[in-house]
Amino acid sequence: MSLSREQMLVEMGISPLWVLRDKAVAEPAGPDVEENTAAPPVADVRQTVAPTIQAPMPIAAVDGANWPELARQVAECKACGLCQQRKQAVLGVGDLNPDWLFIGEGPGAEEDLKGEPFVGQAGKLLDNMLAALDIARGNKVYIANAVKCRPPGNRTPEASEMAACRPYLERQIALLKPKVIVLLGKAAVHTILHDDKSLSALRGQPFEYAGIPVVVTYHPAYLLRNLPEKAKAWEDLLLARKVLRQQAAPELPL
Ligand code: URA
Questions:
Q1: How far apart (Å, rounded) are the C-alpha atoms in residues 143 and 4?
Q2: Residue 16 maps to a domain
Q3: CA distances from residue 84 to 81, 117, 145 in whole angstroms, order as listed
Q4: What separation in Å is there between the alpha carbon of 251 and the centre of ligand 1?
């Protein structure tokens, strides 16, 4: 279903109207912990299988890896315990020569099944956020996650799991060379900025990672439960767009 730009803005919360297009599907619980508004995790039958405790394994050198090599390493990764219950690792999706890189938390149930990030309800909102900016997944946009494997029950990934996965994300960023990075939620902020402050304290100002401007905003799953925050997320996206445009025209004010 294609929406007009006005409808996109409505979806982004620029109008008070909010209508879900599809029947509500339980969202991954992880990102909802942002700003202490956690909902209980969605029950996951696979959680009943006691995971074997696995010490983080050093991952093979990814520094010089090209895309096929990186994809192979991620698909075969056993660097942390998340590999034990995944259906598949989810590397990322999109344009390999992007302006924009969006980084979320980790795959949920649908992403684990399909092998693509943000394909559930949060993904629909993310797609509408992109459309409101006149961009789309796959066209100058790449989407990745802080961890590549689904945390059981869609819990927030542990710091050790994010640390184990970080080299893959770092290599993705080095290969993609995006012009702006948008961090969706606390896990992405933790991984890229090594900062655990609240999102409300971090949003509204650009940061930098490896010389690339970085903008912090709320995770779409959080926005689905906290509709008034969507206007703030829209402001954050506009800041990211300004930062991006400023690279082509440095005289533009932020
Ligand atoms: N939430 C995320 O953070 N990433 C996904 O891929 C899906 C939901």
A1: 23
A2: no
A3: 6, 19, 18
A4: 36
List the CATH number of the domain containing 158.
3.40.470.10
Q: What range defines the domain where residue 99 resides?
A: 65-248
With a 6 Å cutoff on the Cβ, whether 31 touches ligand 1 is yes
* Distance between CA atoms of residues 207 and 190, nearest Å: 13
Please give the tally of structural domains in the chain: 1
| Side chain identity at residue 109, one-letter code | A
- Sequence-separated (6 or more) residues with CB below 8 Å from residue 219: 31, 32, 34, 104, 105, 122, 184, 185, 186, 188
The residue to which tokens 């969605």 are assigned: 42
Lowest mean pLDDT among 39-53, 75-89, 217-231: 39-53
CA of 110 to the centre of ligand 1 (A): 9
pLDDT at position 8 = 63
Question: Which of 155, 219, 222, 224 is the best mutation target for the ligand 1 pocket, counting ligand atoms within 8 Å of the beta carbon and taking the most?
Answer: 219
φ/ψ of 212, rounded to 5, equals: -105, 130
Q: How many CA atoms lie within 13 A of 164 on its CB side?
A: 23
Any residues with CB less than 8 A from the CB of 236 and at least 6 apart, and which?
Answer: 182, 203, 204, 215, 216, 217, 218
- Whether 39 maps to a domain, the answer reads no
Q: For residue 38, is it within any domain?
A: no
The DSSP symbol for 66 reads: -
Is residue 164 a part of any domain in this protein? yes
**pLDDT value at 53 more than 60:** no
Q: What is the pTM of this model?
A: 0.84
Mutate which of 103, 118, 143 for ligand 1 pocket (most atoms within 8 A of beta carbon): 118
